[in-house]
Design brief:
Elements: E1 2-4, H1 5-10, E2 13-19, E3 31-33, E4 37-45, E5 53-66, E6 73-88, E7 107-110, E8 113-115, H2 116-127
Parallel strand pairs: 6-7
Antiparallel strand pairs: 1-8, 2-4, 3-5, 4-5, 5-6
Length: 172
């Protein structure tokens, strides 16, 4: 769904959309939608703001990923609200480096409008944890034999890299 500036100049746009599983691309992120993404909200141009756009709403979705430690399938149910502000791309300063304050760091830019799918994809990615693990106590996979240490114990001994061993004998 394209949120067009031309249309927003006339009226506020509301949305209540479902994006079926695999309808949105999360390529390269190792993620899949485990359920339809449901989003509701509105978009409007703020009066007397020089074209500043506000997009707000909420979404619910379940994302599926592999555990970063043991490769088990992990489900992340997400439900969040968002309230975003965008300025016209023509407001971007011509200089290479410009000092901005904390409030300006939260503002995005648009040219002719915004794709709702892009906004939602960004919000979902920001809501997910940086390290995706099945549990905080996940033991991961044994680097020697490849067994999932959460399911079975292994008798492998970790290899010790002793290239730095001589430093242990130094006195301070």
């Amino acid at each position: 769904m394209f949120l067009s500036v031309r249309e927003l100049e006339l009226r506020k746009i509301g949305f209540d959309r479902n994006f079926e599983s695999r309808q949105m691309e999360f390529a390269g992120e190792g993620l899949e939608q485990g359920s339809p993404l449901h989003a509701t909200g509105s978009a409007e141009l703020l009066p007397e703001s020089g074209g500043q756009m506000r997009v707000w709403g909420s979404y619910t979705v379940e994302m599926v990923a592999q555990c970063d430690r043991c490769l088990a399938t992990v489900r992340y149910p997400l439900q969040a609200e968002f309230d975003l502000y965008y300025r016209p791309a023509s407001d971007v300063p011509e200089e290479e480096e410009v000092k901005i304050d904390a409030g300006e760091a939260e503002i995005g830019f648009y040219e002719d409008g915004l794709e709702l799918e892009d906004i939602l994809r960004e919000q979902v990615l920001l809501a997910l944890p940086m390290q995706r693990v099945c549990s905080e106590t996940c033991k991961g996979i044994c680097p020697a034999c490849g067994k999932n240490r959460n399911e079975t114990a292994c008798d492998c001994k970790p290899e010790v890299d002793d290239r730095w061993g001589a430093l242990r004998n130094l006195e301070l």
